[in-house]
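Notes for week 9. Today we move from apo structures to complexes. The key idea is that a small molecule is not decoration. When we ask for a structure prediction with pyridoxal-5'-phosphate present, the ligand SMILES becomes part of the input, just like the chain. The input block below holds both the sequence and the ligand string. Read it once before you look at the output, and try to guess where the molecule might sit.
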Amino acid sequence: MGPRVLGRPYVRHDGALWCEGVPLEVIAAGAGTPAYVYSANALRERYRALDTALAGVPHRIHYSLKANSSRGLLQVLRDEGCHADVVSGGELVRAMRAGFAPSEIIFGGVGKSRAEIRAGLQAGVKLLNIESAAELDVVEDEARALGVRARIAFRVNPEVEVANAHAYIATGSRGHKFGIPWGDVLSVANRAIASKHLELAGLDMHVGSQLLSLDPYRDGVERLAGLARTLQKAGAPLRYLDAGGGLPARYGEEDAPDLELFASIIVPVATSLGLELIVEPGRFVVAESGALLTRVLYRKLSGGTDFVICDAGMTELLRPSHYDAYHAIEAVQPRGGQATVDVVGPICETGDFLARDRTMDDVQPGDLLAVHTTGAYGYAMSFTYNARPRAPEVLVDGSRWSVITRRETYDDLVRLETETLEWQEA
Ligand SMILES: *Cc1c(COP(=O)(O)O)cnc(C)c1O
């Protein structure tokens, strides 16, 4: 991967950690902890860097909402000209509420329900991505019922090898649940081409996440290109080639992805096919803009392990326990000195940790920590186990900050429960 061209939004002034022009202590004092913080300018910078790299071909960046679908972030990206990629009816609603027009939204997902498919068709999304022959039947059925011609793309499984990825984030190899199996694509395509309710307008792949090598893109788009030529000959009115998401973020000392090299792999393929290029990045766009702020509650030695117990844990940030993910952690105002510790949360699970066996700033109760590169799959995967209200989200833009999602309250936690039961006879 190439040189570090992208900036880091978290910087030190007189020893204290800031996000852009705002001290993190100011945000923690105002919004409380735990809290997620995002840099608006880091979002803009990444969007623009990718947009510039792809300038050689007509293209569109569809930000993948599942990485983080908070309205305050979506609006920053939308103002840049970014479009949206959604994988559920809920994300479709979130995208539209944030101001994306249906024609700016791609609707994918391996298990869209009939109701979700109908909602996508009724809204008039740019593309519905099809992931199986059975789903094609449902889409055709719903299109017929609505009297519309569904614009669809095939998400195919190009069956490429994805090296070094955590098993849970490789998605485009043989035997994964995602995409139309490579061997079935032609027969499914012929059915789509023959249907007057379907317009096969694109081919799509998404082979994995945090792809530190560009080889899967090279292998995948090459396979897609061969397929596109075959389908064009068979009469498919293709307009889009979608290379998916998967560009990596820097969690530790990795280099930033080489966007020029990435573009040099996919742009010529789209150009030679005469197709508009689509990419669906999530993590790359938002991960590095985010930090999770958490306060140290206690320090305790147990069985030879030095525990730092803080007010955020797996409910705020699931990635360490779910993916064994690494997130850099530092003190917002270091005292000096280092210690080797387990950073854990208050949740009653041994799997509740943010870092294990980590040598980092020595900290004491009351100290504020920043858990880095948490803008993607952080808040979006947070949950309320142990009846913990979800943390607020804060957007920083220059020297200003604002809460974009308020902290959940205890009332929010019980809002959905029926107070007086209304029994129904079976
Ligand atoms: C998750 C997902 C993405 C985004 O993946 P990142 O690794 O965050 O870039 C893009 N497209 C599809 C279909 C996805 O499921």
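The first strand starts at residue 10 and ends at 13.
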